[in-house]
């Protein structure tokens, strides 16, 4: 069986994360929203809140997980992107979540970490 390209794995993980979050009542606002400094995987609405979501897919590893892979530089870029998005689309309460997926025999084990990154902009 051929190995899947990282972009295919990332897209499949985003698809799974999006479907999982939608089943929990969140509504998609934007996907793979890009600006000059980077990209935000998913932007969803939960009530009055805008939720900026970073999706991480990792092989099982007891010493490293998806959220731990979001370093300060990445966090700063996500905050900058969120501030730009809010400036263009209207300010509202916002938070940063991480959805960490670990492949398993049934698809994915999914962990949703709300307010995973401090700050709105």
Structural description of this entry:
The structure is a single chain. The protein has one domain (6-96): 3-Layer(aba) Sandwich (Trna Endonuclease, Chain: A, domain 1), CATH 3.40.1350.10. The N and C termini lie far apart (44 Å). A five-stranded mixed β-sheet has the order 1-2-3-4-5, sandwiched between helices. The protein contains two helices and five strands, in the order αβββαββ. It is α+β, with helices and mostly antiparallel strands and 121 residues long. It has helices spanning 6-23, 72-89; strands at 27-35, 38-46, 49-57, 94-104, 107-117. InterPro entries: Restrct_endonuc-II-like, tRNA_endonuc-like_dom_sf, UPF0102_YraN-like. Pfam families: UPF0102.
Secondary-structure blueprint:
Layout: H1 6-23, E1 27-35, E2 38-46, E3 49-57, H2 72-89, E4 94-104, E5 107-117
Parallel strand pairs: 3-4
Antiparallel strand pairs: 1-2, 2-3, 4-5
Family: Belongs to the UPF0102 family.
InterPro entries: Restrct_endonuc-II-like, tRNA_endonuc-like_dom_sf, UPF0102_YraN-like
Pfam family, one: UPF0102
């Amino acid at each position: 069986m051929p190995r899947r390209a990282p972009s295919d794995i990332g897209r499949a993980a985003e698809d799974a994360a999006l479907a999982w979050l939608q089943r929990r009542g969140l509504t998609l606002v934007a996907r793979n929203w890009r600006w000059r400094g980077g990209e935000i995987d998913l932007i969803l609405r939960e009530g009055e809140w805008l939720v900026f979501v970073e999706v991480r897919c990792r092989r099982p590893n007891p010493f490293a997980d998806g959220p731990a892979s979001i370093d300060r530089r990445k966090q700063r870029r996500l905050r900058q992107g969120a501030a730009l998005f809010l400036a263009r689309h209207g300010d509202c309460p916002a938070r940063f979540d991480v959805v960490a997926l670990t492949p398993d025999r049934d698809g994915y084990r999914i962990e949703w970490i709300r307010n995973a990154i401090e700050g709105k902009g």
